[in-house]
Amino acid sequence: MPYVTGTAPGALPLVGHAWSLTRHPLRFLESLPAYGDLVEIRLGPTPAYVPCHPELLRQVLTDDRTFDKGGPFFDRFRSVLGNGLANCPHAEHRRQRRLIQPAFHRTRLERYGDTIEREIDALTEPWRHGQVVDAFPVLYRFALRTVMRNLFSAHIDPPTADRLQQAFQTALGQVVQRMFTPQFVQRLPLPVNRRYDRALAFVRATVEELITRYRRGGEDHGDLLSMLIAAREDTDGEGGGSVGFDDGEIQDQVIVMLLAGSESVAAVLSWALCLVARHPEVARRLQEEADAVHGGRPSRSADLPHLPCAGRVVTETLRLYPPGWLITRATTAEAKLAGRVLPAGTTVVFSPPVVHRRSDTHHEAERFDPDRWLPERSGELPRGSFVAFGSGARKCIGDTYAMTEAVLALSTIAGRWDISCTPRTDARPAPMAGILYPRRLLLRLTDRT
Ligand code: HEM
Question: pTM of this prediction?
Fold first, then answer.
């Protein structure tokens, strides 16, 4: 099929489409398919190409040798966050993935499920009738605490865990701004830079100390860090030689997991609660399901197969508000896409909302309709039309973990309270953020009568 290529209008000198992208990301991205299947935009002065057609995007995501991690902001991101699984180039990826994959095996996920259950209890137990919850920050702390517990199990004392959490939030809060700030400004002795340097140094030092302690103890604590330390690759195919991660690599992996496993889960849960608050019919069905499956208590991992309605609500939320909204690739060699020749070093943008919000792909795409994910309806969807977790070799390794956490938390919260948005809620996506999350989501919890 002949693809159409085009150019998005409205690029400004020097900044390109940065203003629309950071201020009104969804509006801008949704508008792109009107200009073609492959659309040129400007990230600052750099031209970048956005595959808007699901099949073109699939081509990009499944050829990760040609369309490798990279792009103008990505290299900055890598310099800040290290070279872990989510950031490393293709040449290192297969080895890292093979070493980490066992940590996400079904049997391990069952253990993580126990921690998720405990953290959902700790989150919701103090909530009272009439309380207003500032959803995103609260859910962010919950998701970060959960992933920390799964990384380090009980081997981190609560005050250190709190400090680690604060330091991580401080460092992460500045990553996006730093991606847009010239490097010499980042080196100036400004309070903001010093806070950032201190926070990142504390995170790295704490993780380093934990690794040393784990190595010295030598036991398997059943957590992610134990798995990363024990991970070995058979280098000669006969078990004669084996290589694992060195301590620096483990630190990078821990930082990737802390980052990837926290903000995105908090974001999808926040949007899901916002949508449920605004769609009483969906809330009612979630409550009926929760009553039937875990009435009167929080949900448990064993309940998961019986919570299909909550699962569909989370999937539909991920379609409308995929946390990762702008991820770049750089071509490592000349490549052809939609009939167009892209020289080596061209930036290509992977943006899930662009394909998720196309009405010719998803019927009435703007409508929140969890039932579109009923098996008899979702089977019709074209390949590449749902990419909230990516696709191909770089697909999210934590997708099952994330779905478990989001579905159990949603079913527990929606099953126990009627949720409404207070008038001061501002549910537009936060500007200048690395992931899509609502600016201010103030949810009122009312005991169900
Ligand atoms: C709703 C929650 C989540 C969403 C929407 C999400 C989304 C994604 C996406 C789109 C990618 C692919 C990026 C690309 O192609 O460049 C990815 C990769 C990744 N995610 Fe997630 N993620 C979520 C939760 C998690 C969790 C809970 C973890 C770990 C505990 C995690 C760990 C990772 C890692 C390590 C990668 C890199 C995989 C690789 O390159 O082999 N993610 N995620």
Answer: 0.94
